[in-house]
């Protein structure tokens, strides 16, 4: 889910270590990651051995098909281990006013979102709206960018007034899009939520502990430089109940 061109070499090294641990445990170990933009078919595949999804799609579309077994601790400021949050950004500090009430949010001229299935980039606005954001925000005020990186650039280029950005993606942007980050303002933060789950097909439900141990061991073997590149400090377990907080009421 944080597969940027700048992080891909480190991610591939991490996967190679995971694949070796899976092979040692007698589990399928694809040699290469599948980076397809059509993610839902991958997440729903009965052959999925290890994947990563956003908490909202898991809680609302994947329960019963996929099973969470791990999540990363990213070492984010003011986030307990194994959690993350959204960074609300605007063109200037004055844009903080759009986060003061549902009415103010609805009056925002344009909001950049990476997608309507994203917890950190769209559904997090429920903390301001007091309801599902789709019920408050009109489609003509939503700029669909396709990624957190593109949402940051949209605000920096004044194509959108505000956006909510996954805090891990924002850390990556500070490294790889410094000019854009310098041209925006942080106007708020969401409450911490469970970080993105690593999932497997329900067909591997009995292998949850083996999968957790394989990813944990691979993380231990990964060099510190690569862990820093991927913003990963450690691997912790994940359960279905951790993500019920993302369940939609409608």
How would you sum up this structure in a few lines?
The chain is an alpha+beta fold. Helices cover 36% and strands 18% of the residues.
CATH class of the largest domain: Alpha Beta
Helix content: 25-40%
Please give the alpha-carbon distance between the first and last residues: 25 Å
The shape is globular
Order of helices and strands: HHEHEEEHEHHEHEHHEEEHHE
Structural class: alpha+beta
What's the number of domains? 2
Q: Kindly report the spatial arrangement of strands forming the biggest sheet.
A: 6-5-7-4-8
Structure notes:
It is a single chain. The protein has helices spanning 8-24, 39-44, 55-62, 102-106, 126-129, 133-136, 148-156, 167-176, 178-182, 208-221, 224-230, and strands spanning 51-52, 66-73, 83-84, 86-90, 111-113, 142-144, 162-166, 185-189, 193-194, 197-201, 234-237. It folds into 2 domains: 8-75 and 193-246, D-Maltodextrin-Binding Protein, domain 2, CATH 3.40.190; 86-189, Periplasmic binding protein-like II (D-Maltodextrin-Binding Protein, domain 2). The protein contains 11 helices and 11 strands. By secondary structure, it is of the alpha+beta class. The strands form 3 sheets. Strands 6-5-7-4-8 form a 5-stranded mixed β-sheet. Strands 1-10-2-11 form a 4-stranded antiparallel β-sheet, sandwiched between helices. Strands 3-9 form a two-stranded antiparallel ribbon. The chain starts with 7 loop residues before the first helix and ends in a 13-residue tail after the last strand. The mean pLDDT is 96.
């Amino acid at each position: 889910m944080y597969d940027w061109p700048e992080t891909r070499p480190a991610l591939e090294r991490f996967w190679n270590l995971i694949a070796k641990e899976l092979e040692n445990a007698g589990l399928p170990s694809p040699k290469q990651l599948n980076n397809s933009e059509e993610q839902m078919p991958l997440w729903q595949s009965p052959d999925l051995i290890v994947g990563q999804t956003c908490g909202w799609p898991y809680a609302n579309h994947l329960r019963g098909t996929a099973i969470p077994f791990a999540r990363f601790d990213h070492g984010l400021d003011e986030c307990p281990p194994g959690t993350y949050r959204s960074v609300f950004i605007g063109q200037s500090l004055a844009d903080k006013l759009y986060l003061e009430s549902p009415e103010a949010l609805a009056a925002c001229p344009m909001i950049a979102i990476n997608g309507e299935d994203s917890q950190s980039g769209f559904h997090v606005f429920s903390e301001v709206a007091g309801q599902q954001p789709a019920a408050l925000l009109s489609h003509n005020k939503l700029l669909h960018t396709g990624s957190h990186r593109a949402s940051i650039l949209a605000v920096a280029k004044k194509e959108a007034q505000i956006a909510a950005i996954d805090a891990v993606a924002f850390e990556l942007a500070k490294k790889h899009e410094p000019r854009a980050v310098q041209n925006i303002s942080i106007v708020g933060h969401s409450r911490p939520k469970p970080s993105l789950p690593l999932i497997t097909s329900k067909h591997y439900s009995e292998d949850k502990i083996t999968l957790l141990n394989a990813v944990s061991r691979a993380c231990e073997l990964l060099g510190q430089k690569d862990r820093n590149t991927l913003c990963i400090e450690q691997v912790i377990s994940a359960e279905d109940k951790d993500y019920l907080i993302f369940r939609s009421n409608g």
